[in-house]
Design goal:
By secondary structure, this protein is an alpha+beta fold. 52% of the residues lie in helices and 12% in strands.
């Protein structure tokens, strides 16, 4: 995922719930890694916000590249 341009306007509660559901139901069995390029402060903050809701296996799959 290219996170360049990700901002506060993308942090609506409904959207975050959708991301969590996709991570828990789809990515857990199909992807080896989720690579996020060009994360800014908002993207890192969103990642920290969803961390408590996902399991350890998925947490290990998410990688941020600067």
């Amino acid at each position: 995922f290219n996170l360049e341009g990700f901002g506060y306007q993308h942090l609506y509660l409904d959207d975050i719930k959708k991301v969590i559901n996709v991570l828990l139901k789809i990515f857990v069995n199909t992807n080896y890694k989720i690579v996020c390029c060009f994360p800014n402060f908002v993207a890192r903050m969103a990642n920290k916000a969803i961390q408590p809701f996902i399991n350890e296996r998925i947490k290990r799959k998410i990688v941020f590249l600067d």
